[in-house]
Amino acid sequence: MLAVSFEELRSPLRFLQSTLSGFRPPDWLQQYQCWWEKEGQDISDLTDRSGTPWLRMFDLSGGRVDEILYSPDYWRMLKQGYQTGLIWRVAEENREFPCGLFPAALGIYVTSFYDPGLACPYTVSLSTFVPLSKYGDRELQERFLPRLLQKEKDVWQGATWMTEIKGGSDLGATVETIARPAGKQWLLTGDKYFASNAGAELAVVAARPEGAAPNVRGLALFLVPRFRQNGQLNYTIRRLKDKIATRSVPTGEIELRESEAWLLGRAEDGIYLILEVLNVSRVANSVGSVALAQRAMADAASFAQQRMVFGKPLIEQPLMRHQFDDRLRQLRAASNLAWRSVELLNQAWQEKPPYSERFHLFRLVAHLAKYWTAELAAQTAKWAMEVHGGLGTLQEYRAERWLREAMILAIWEGPAHRQILDGLEVMERKHAHRLLFQSLAATVDASSLRQMEEKVEQHLALSREDKEAGAEALFSELAAFTADALLQSEETSARSSR
Length: 498
Prior knowledge:
Layout: H1 6-9, H2 12-19, H3 27-50, E1 54-58, E2 64-69, H4 72-84, H5 102-114, H6 119-135, H7 138-148, E3 158-161, H8 171-174, E4 178-182, E5 185-196, E6 202-209, E7 220-225, E8 236-240, E9 251-263, H9 270-306, E10 308-309, E11 312-313, H10 318-348, H11 357-388, H12 399-409, H13 416-430, H14 432-440, H15 446-460, H16 464-469, H17 471-497
Helix pairs in contact: 3-4, 3-5, 5-6, 5-9, 6-7, 6-9, 9-10, 9-11, 9-12, 10-11, 10-17, 11-12, 11-13, 11-14, 11-17, 15-17
């Protein structure tokens, strides 16, 4: 049978207890999971089936309002996470989690187990909080941070808008939004094409100051509120998009027209700030991908336990049992990789350029984790649909939903090729792979470690074209190697503590 009980697999917190050494879920997190079991999942299912929300652009007087219309139950579901403390807890000193961003990651994990799309608003709100708390001046922080960290229902939401119509992977060539100085403020004009959490009260936006270089070095990061200082709309929503999944977050096209904004940090450091924002979201995406994979496995296990095939439960068939055991080990390995990226983010998120070696190690692990966990989520969800057979393709059950959700997780914050190329860059320029191998040396066989390091070094010595063309095989192997090494370390630690 499975190496883990079904009850443990079907509970995000019990699974985390088996994955994270010494982890004991605090009361607020247990209550959050209970709320999802009692109320949240039903609301989430209804939201997914009802599809994209409506956009009411004008009020009865003809004034532009751009109000996104959801059911009251949806707003209750959304605000539950904010009130629980997925954002405000990161700014509070506490004895449970002195590591800053850890409470947000835990909350995002639980959320993603029940509704991966709903984790997006919390993620981008966190990714708005981070640069504002690091790079905003005192006036900006005093004005906006309290609204993002409120514990009541009128908490503000954040958003991160980078991508434009020509794509998001090559920001230096595709960002055409222009920022014009206007005293202490800036005025932004341009269009953002994939704007998750459209309607947010505050967004961090990539734009190019007038006269800046036409490449990534010319980009800067700006803070854009929903309303101007005179109370009028500061940006408008052209339309909301119909998507394959993640229907718990409105994604739209945003129009910036002389929109009031504030520069975060120094303009010349803009691309570094933008990448910091993206990497926070990539870590959250990794956590959410593991949670989705766990949920797909849990539902598949529940079905396989009660489905009778050739006179006995499907889960007792030798091939199916082997598949469950194999995928459970993959899940545990991916979980260790994702939470290692959280740990490194906690250590490095307050660093500013120029960065330390620790930050470069974080970058590499974040790319490995985002790549590997997103692939795992998609493959696990596909397999879980196959376990359900024809029933898995029907919208009245959840198996098909987890596959739809997983396909978007692979795209968010850069698809596989973006993670591979960025990971290759940090290995080539910052030698982050050497830092990674040093961190794994105590738990990995020396011969295996040396072989992996030699493969990486040989690949980095190739011509630029060959290096990029063959990068996926190397990156995939390095991700699997790292995930397995971390799992072995966890298993060794668990045995020694018994």
